[in-house]
Amino acid sequence: MERIGFIGLGIMGKPMAQNLVKAGYQLVVHDINRGAVEEVAAGGAAAAASSKEVAAQSDVVITMLPDSPDVEAVVFGPEGVAQGVRSGMLFVDMSTIAPATARKVYEALKQEGLESLDAPVSGGEVGAKEATLSIMVGGTEAAFQRAMPLFQVMGKNIVLTGGPGAGQVTKACNQIIVGLTIQAVAEALTLAKKAGVDPAKVRSALLGGFAQSRILELHGQRMIDHNFKPGFKIKLHRKDLAIALQTGREFAVPLMTTSQVAEMMNALIAAGNEELDHSALALVVEQLSGEK
Ligand code: NAD
Predict the structure, then answer these.
(1) Residue nearest to atom 40 of ligand 1 (CA)
(2) What is the distance between the alpha carbons of residues 82 and 249, in angstroms, rounded to a whole number?
(3) What's the Cα-to-Cα distance from 273 to each of 12, 14, 220, 266, rounded to whole Å?
(4) Known catalytic membership, residue 156
(5) Hey, where are the domains in the chain?
(6) Which residue's CA lies nearest to atom 9 of ligand 1?
(7) Fold classified for 4-162
(8) In this predicted model, what pLDDT tens digit does every residue of 222-265 receive, in sequence order?
(9) pTM exceeds 0.85, yes or no
(10) For ligand 1, is residue 167 a contact (CB within 6 Å)?
């Protein structure tokens, strides 16, 4: 079995790393949050003091970090992965970052003779814990096949969508659909409430028809309950729509509705709600509608 390095043990990374340990892989882990490292180490992983140390002991290095600058810092920074690479090492970034950054990392590691994959995920904390994540992968077929046994420990729907950066483009598409659908559900349920119709009954009625979706089902219920405990934080979704808009500019695709929803997220964050779940978009719609 390959020795696995795992960097970034947050909401997603911790359960993903724990699933690899449970599957019998030897793991060496690192995070700037030492509490998270100790927790995963208690389950049988080895703790490393830096990303460089992780790379020096691993055949495959996986990262699950917040954003593009974090991945660049962990790969290229002092005490970073690039300082400790071993020949034949495979680098797999599972964070959601800009496709342009993913391609930059791919090219830089290729110069060192290393393969890498961008492999962002969908499915949230529950999917990470239950190992049912969807994994959208960009890179070469050979690298994809090598990583497949690891992906199968963490997820279910695993698709190679193209070359370097294609996984991140796929994730941007995912985040557009999720963000705009949350906005649609928020508008529909707020309309129902203000028009004097019980939003819970509207949700139940719509779940049987063409408007049915996981977002209406799960986030519709959150909106009805006003339960906005994360889940997926609004600040991360705004980051993802910024990635989509940046990619839209790169390829000259006008993403009109995406930019409107990104501004709604800005309004939510301006009101001090950046740590809430993304379903809290309903709060902005309610406020604009004078709904308490
Ligand atoms: P998180 O903030 O909970 O975890 C990120 C972890 O990275 C933290 O533990 C942090 O300490 C660590 N970290 C940051 N910089 C570091 C560095 N330089 N060196 C070592 N460790 C460092 O975030 P998350 O919710 O786990 O999300 C991770 C990625 O997955 C993000 O790109 C996010 O957009 C994506 N994602 C999240 C979800 C979700 O539901 N939370 C779902 C799909 C995708």
Answers:
(1) 124
(2) 30
(3) 21, 24, 19, 10
(4) no
(5) 4-162, 169-289
(6) 10
(7) Rossmann fold (3.40.50)
(8) 999 999 998 899 999 999 999 999 999 999 999 999 999 999 99
(9) yes
(10) no
